[in-house]
Specification:
The structure holds two protein chains of two kinds. In chain A, 34% of the residues lie in helices and 9% in strands. Chain A has helices at residues 2-8, 12-33, 81-86, 105-114, and strands at residues 94-97, 102-104, 127-131. Chain A has a three-stranded antiparallel beta sheet with strand order 2-1-3. In chain A, a hairpin with a 4-residue loop joins strand 1 (94-97) and strand 2. The longest helix of chain A has 22 residues, at 12-33. Chain A is elongated and about 75 Å long. By secondary structure, chain B is α+β, with helices and mostly antiparallel strands. In chain B, 40% of the residues lie in helices and 11% in strands. Chain B contains five helices and four strands; from the N terminus they run H-H-E-E-E-E-H-H-H. Chain B is elongated, with a radius of gyration of 22 Å. Residues 20-30 of chain B have low confidence and may be disordered. Classes of the chains: A alpha+beta, B alpha+beta. The A-B interface holds A 70-73, 81-82, 85-88, 107, 110-111, 114-115, 117, 119-120, 122 and B 15, 18-19, 21-22, 28-29, 31-32, 35-36, 39, 92-94, 122-124, 126-127, 129, 131-133.
């Protein structure tokens, strides 16, 4: 709930307004529920919460199924073991198969010569895309 | 502008220097295998079955070791079987080579010591062969299981051993025990 409010708001003021509204709404609901026992008290509700400060928090991750190259056992977003020792970090790209498994292009090109299957799922290796 | 040009030059110099440092491709190939092995060997110690023992003759050479299997059950119980494992330069694209140094009467190990274990096969049509996802510990567990779960009389390497088993299980057992007594008992 709170996350949605924050993500939709452009400014602090807007967010604080919505939070206030939400607070009022929930109190109103409460009042409805308790109607039989206590009469509603509208005056006290107004300043229940004041939003003084808020921080937006975001997280990110790579959108790939496996993040470690199963061949050289280095993260696919880093250069592979071979390129690291050959100092060719910039040339080391990632390759994705139709099976959605990813490897370093250089690691995979060594492996397909031996066996044209994905080392992880054993499916026939078909290239989906190459890039970073 | 000047700093950018300088930066490009620096990058180029660095690259050239790097290329010179690894002029022999063979040298860097070896180090890839050894880098992989350094990690694997550390894991290996914590991950071997009770019946197995791994020994490195030279602590600086990680691509060669002996595996001693002393099965706790089955036909080969109490025998001491020594396997020599050699890891080729192309590891982990190519699988390790394994030779059984102890003479043994076993359907999946020849009397010369060749071992028939699917995960050691370099080229396979199904997924049972070698893959770079496999590690030394899989080899150790695989060899250990040749005495129990992976024992396979239906696809033998030592055909004679398998035939004897189907013909007469008792004489098969006796032959196994003879071999153990002769070749796989503790040396005095």
């Amino acid at each position: 709930m709170i996350f949605n409010i924050y993500s939709r708001c452009q400014s602090k003021e807007e967010a604080s307004g919505i939070v206030k509204m939400a607070a009022e709404n929930s109190l109103e609901e409460q009042d409805v529920n308790m109607e039989e026992n206590t009469p509603s008290k509208e005056q006290g509700v107004q300043k229940m919460f004041t939003l003084k400060k808020w921080n937006a928090v975001a997280m990110w991750s790579w959108d790939v199924e496996c993040d470690t190259c199963a061949i050289c056992r280095v993260q696919v977003m880093d250069a592979c073991l071979r390129c690291q020792s050959d100092n060719k970090q910039e040339e080391c790209v990632v390759i994705w198969g139709e099976c959605n498994h990813s490897f370093h292009n250089c690691c995979m090109s060594l492996w397909v010569v031996q066996n044209n299957r994905c080392p992880l799922c054993q499916q026939e290796w078909v290239v989906q895309r190459i890039g970073r | 502008m000047i700093t950018l040009a300088k930066k490009i030059k620096e990058e180029r110099d660095k690259k050239e220097k790097g290329n010179r440092a690894t002029e022999s491709p063979k040298g860097s190939r070896i180090s890839v295998r050894d880098k992989l092995l350094t990690k694997e060997v550390t894991e290996l110690d914590e991950n071997v079955p009770e019946s197995c023992k791994v020994d490195f003759k030279d602590p600086n050479v990680l691509h060669e070791f002996t595996l001693t299997v002393t099965p706790g059950e089955g036909y080969w119980k109490e025998g001491i079987f020594i396997f020599h494992v050699m890891i080729p330069e192309e590891y982990n694209i190519k699988p390790p080579h394994v030779l059984c140094e102890t003479k043994i009467w076993h359907p999946n190990i020849s009397e010369n010591g060749e071992v028939c274990l699917s995960l050691l096969r370099e080229h396979t049509l199904d997924g049972s062969g070698w893959a770079p996802t496999r590690k030394l510990k899989d080899i150790v567990w695989g060899l250990n299981s040749l005495f129990t779960d992976l024992l396979n009389f239906d696809d033998p390497l030592n055909v004679e051993a398998s035939e004897l088993y189907f013909k007469n299980k008792e004489s098969f057992r006796r032959r196994v025990e003879d071999y153990i007594r002769l070749y796989a008992s503790p040396r005095r």
